[in-house]
Design goal:
The chain has helices at residues 2-9, 12-32, 36-56, 61-79, 83-105, 117-138, 147-167, 173-194, 199-228; strands at 109-110, 233-234. It has 241 residues and is mainly alpha-helical.
Amino acid sequence: MLHKLERMTATWQFHVSMIVLFVLMQTVGYFYLGGMSFVQGWGGGIAASIATWFLMFKSQGYWAWMVVNAGLWTYLFFHTGVPMLAYLQVSIMIFSFYGMIQWALVKSRFGFTPKVSTDLFGAVLASSLFVYSVYAYWGMPGYTGTTWWYIEFGSVITSVMAITMDAFKYKTNWIAWSTSNVFSFFLFLHLYMHDSTYAGPFWTIFLYQTINCVGFVQWVRDEKRLVAEGEVELVGGAQYA
């Protein structure tokens, strides 16, 4: 079943269909379901779900849809007064362009190796985003150390870890994304209770977390098959059970 879905996902018709359906949904949502609030909230969540679907099959479409998701949520979070989450989306957008290039250049290897310049660049970029996240969150008087600070901070840090592992195709990325989604669930629920704009970010968590669970199974199976067939090399601790 997953193999058939993978072949379908790889076709240009599927990519075009996703774009058309997404644009139609955004258009209907804008005119009839809430204007820009729908476009930002639900649009970003749906884009994240589509991105996760493409990630499940290691398709370049993943990075493109992550840029769409990050762009919409950057606007949303700045607009609703949650700047740290907005800056996270900016970071995700920047790293997505790197991930797109990395996947294009490295196709027959899973894992990180310091012997490759693009891997080193990605590691430096990811480390910089991580350090900046810690720095940005550490000094927030009146907020640092509170329950919601820990939840938001946990969501940000695990997201940075997850998208970094995406770039090097570590299957533990699914665990990191799931951990981030747990933090985001409570954070978005809290925000949703005070602002209905967060209906989209909150409810779509259930959709892309479901895909996360299937994605982990798919990557484990795919990794075993590709290694057994000699099509990929595992480096830097990228091991299969």
